[in-house]
Amino acid sequence: MWVLFVICVAGIIGFLTYTDRLSTFKQPIQITQRSQIDAASVLINRKISEIETVMRLFKHELELLQPSKRVISHAFKTLFKVYPELLQVRWLDLQGNEIVRLELTHDGTLVEVDESALQNKASRYYFTAGISLVPDEIFITQIDLNVENGVVQRPFYPTVRAVTKATQAELGTGILVINFDLRPLLDNLNTLNTATSYLLVGAGTSKWILHPNPDKEWTIDLSTPPANIVLEVPHLWHQLSTQDSVPSQTIGNHIITAQRIKSSHHEVGGMQEIYLLAKSKDDLLPGLKLKAMKYAFAMSFVLCAFGLIVLILYVKHFQRLKGLSKALKNERDSLKTALAQQNLLISELAESQKLSSLSIMVAGLAHELNTPVGATRMALSNLKSLLDTLSERAKNGLTKAQFEHFISQSEKVILLADSNNQRAINLVKSFKRLSFERAKDDNSTFNVLDTINILKQSMAGLFKQHHVTLEVHIPENMNIQGDAGAFSQIIQILITNAMDHAFGASTANKIAIVATQKNTHVEVRVTDNGAGIPPSLQSTIFDPFITSKRHKQHTGLGLHMAKAWMYQAFKGDIKLTDSTEGGTQFTLVFPQPQNE
Fold first, then answer.
1. Is 359 left (phi over 0), alpha (psi -120 to 50) or beta?
2. Interatomic CA distance for residues 153 and 158, integer angstroms
3. Model pLDDT for residues 478-499, shown as the tens digit of each residue
4. Which has more confidence, 341 or 18?
5. Is the pTM of this model over 0.85?
6. What is the pLDDT of residues 214-252, one digit of tens each?
């Protein structure tokens, strides 16, 4: 896909490069052609203006001089001397008869045509146009080759005629016709050709009057196969029919710029519209295309080579990433296995923590049971001694005083045994209740003070062993909704954690449990007056396996489990807060539902 993408991009870039370079190569030619067209337009418009000017000046001069028929030819000769680009000057009467005609011969001699050779031009289109002219109006004929007696003159004399109506005192009203030689104009237009572009000039849509191929010039005048703008560049002619100028464009293998010069003489035989075309030479545009194509191919080749290098680097990079991905997958699998093992270990340690908490309570209970059980055993032993003494005396004769003494002592012993036995029973009941609450995982409402008192009673032996005084400041009617067993487990963890880490050999150790009812939660603070937690451990105190007494087989899971149970059982939180006692204070927040 990358190779296909690179090829497509290289093709697009190559095409755009080819188009851009070809446009750059064509630009100087287009500028040259525009200059050719502008210069040719100036020359042609100047020639048309010059013809009109000469005609008006000569007519005005004749009207001033009013020469007779005998001397008018002299005035015509003067005109030839002043304006060397004239071919013929003649005066026609209103019937079309030539009255006077002067013309240049092939060798450049100016001659006056004999009266016997004068012709009638009444059938010619320019005479018809001249008759209909109003005073001071000038009619310029179409551009063609000069024809005498129905035959095109050779060598060719490209000609345009200027016609006007004039009045002489002796000759009366007549038609003045002047034939202008266009060879100098065409020669000047030919000089505009360059090494890259040549000029084509069309007289209307019927013929070329200037073409790089002479066989295509004056075809309609010479009755040869037609050649004109309509046949050669029809698309361009359609454009020029609606606009005067067409910017440079590519037609076939040529660059062509065109312009149309409108004519103001629309009568029959009037001067045609002039079409100017600047056309590049036949081999120029193909050469420019080849040059631009080579440049574009070089750009495409460089881009393909770059794309191939990128592909090779990408494949190497992909293989390296694949290797890293495989290694990362293996590492992830290893970490996943290790995490599963760690979670299993934490679960096992959590169970161990529960059993450890239970063993602590069992140890405390055993310590507490030793006293009432021992006292009961001692009372039973005393009762047996009294009974043995009574039996012995009964053999020798039992007195009333001895029997009354036995009854009195037996009552005291039985009362003592019953009292200690009841105490033991109460301890066992408390232990059973606490164990049941921790095992049943029940989400209900429990009394905070009752739960703390049960825990306190079950841990009384541990308090004596560590010389700890437990102070409880909890309202009697304070309740918490949640798991009572989890609550007592969390409180026991904080108490045992304080006894294991906070206290030394002092006998003034104190732990205080204070509960406060807030608007949306119950806040329980467990505070000790021990050594406190080192600052280095405070930020990680709730992380698993964090402990300062690992050498004494502490797992570091106590506070971690307390925080986990706070969230799981109560959606609450536990945090380490500042203590006014100088030791450690934990604040537990138990969210409670609002009463509706």
1. alpha
2. 10
3. 998 888 878 888 888 888 888 8
4. 18
5. no
6. 999 999 999 999 999 999 999 999 999 899 999 999 998
Per DSSP, helices labelled H in 66-145 are: 72-82, 125-131
Does residue 165 contact residue 135 with C-beta atoms inside 8 Å?
yes
| Contact present, 488 and 434 (Cβ < 8 Å) | yes
Give every CB contact of residue 327 below 8 A, 6+ residues apart in sequence.
none
> 86 forms bridges with which residues in the sheet?
180
Distance between CA atoms of 11 and 24, rounded to whole angstroms? 20
Give the separation between CA 90 and CA 175, rounded to whole angstroms: 8
Write the burial class of residue 163 (CB in 10 Å: 0-12 exposed, 13-18 middle, 19+ buried): buried
Query: Hunting for tokens 């000047």 — which residue is that?
Result: 188
Half-sphere exposure of 179 (CA within 13 A, CB side): 19
Query: What whole-number distance in Å separates Cα of residue 582 and Cα of residue 510?
Result: 11
CB 92 within 8 A of CB 179: no
Look-up of token digits 């019953």: 418
Task: Give the mean pLDDT of 278-303.
Answer: 91
DSSP-assigned letters across all residues of 405-457? HHHHHHHHHHHHHHHHHHHHHHHHHHHHHHHHHHHH---EEEEHHHHHHHHHH
